[in-house]
Amino acid sequence: MTLAGDPGRAKLPDGTGPAIPEPRAEDLLRWYDRERRHLPWRYAPGDAPDPYRIWLSEIMLQQTRVETVARYYERFLARFPTVETLAAARLESVLKLWAGLGYYARARNLYACACEIVLRYNGRFPDTEEELRELPGIGAYTAAAIASIAFGRKATPVDGNVERVVARLCSIETPLPAAKPVLRRLAEGLVPETRAGDFAQAMMDLGATICTPKSPDCPRCPWRPSCLGRVRGVHEDLPRRLPKTESELRRGAAFVVLREDGAVLVRRRPREGLLGGMTEVPGTDWSAVFDLADAQRMAGQLLPFVPAIAWRRLPGSVRHVFTHFPLELTVFVARTPNGASAPRGMRFVKLDRLGGEALPTLMRKVVAHAVPEAAPAAKSS
Known about the structure:
The structure is a single chain. The chain is an alpha+beta fold. 38% of the residues lie in helices and 10% in strands. Strands 1, 2, 3, 4, 5, 6 and 7 form a 7-stranded mixed β-sheet that branches. 38% of the residues are buried.
């Protein structure tokens, strides 16, 4: 195949010597047939792929490591084996099962997408990139991945692994994100007419196991002779990236109310926005200009049934990093008698039942900080 726009492939860097061979899809596919990763969502050669399982895995894999996804994927499938069972569930049940996986907008979009597939497509996934991209939570990469892997369409899913492989293969030194259009064009030029799904997965595996960000295993690479970056000695520095700007730290307070019977006060976050629909302990807004001196006053406004003198500020803080900003929470704890009832919109949950709640990782950290002995119970069951 010809890589249109691939600079410098005809000669070595000094302009002399033999031509550097173009990468061949059949070489990568031959390697993939031998070395493919055995993942729970991968179908065996000759088996018909299940679009539901592929869609579920691709949503879970967004910005999440394979090892983490594998644990959640099997448990999720056991509870929701088909798109119909997922659409028939309550959103709260989906969020509970997703708790700890992070990026919770994915779970809300997953549920919305399942409902639309059942209502609009009678439970059958559309098989083109254009139709798939109209569904909630499915962007360009995910649509291409589903179209190629589930339906054999000649589509090109381009993620960070693929960008790295192509940047090195073609020695593209333009920094990301400016390089994205040319990397996509070059990646599209590599896709064969047949076995597009296998090729997409082969590219993912190559980036994940051989062409890794640090210390790539070039001797084992099926495209080693064709790698311009390696020939030029710059492959480990590619793809180049512009320096990241530091996100501003946000701060806030979390208020942990513990009842004498071993229950903790929780509430549900609004469905829209960060951690939408998840369970949390009450707290303040998160802000770069948060004033800790006002925290107990805020607790009095939020939870007037707890006397001001009951609050105890814990030493240290809970830190968590979201995609766009780091967060630091100061934790206050108060204890109330058994007769205390929850304010409107809140409820008490026994600590040993927190594992069944849609408790995000941040709130697990808060509970563990406030009640260390309850940390195991806060994990997902």
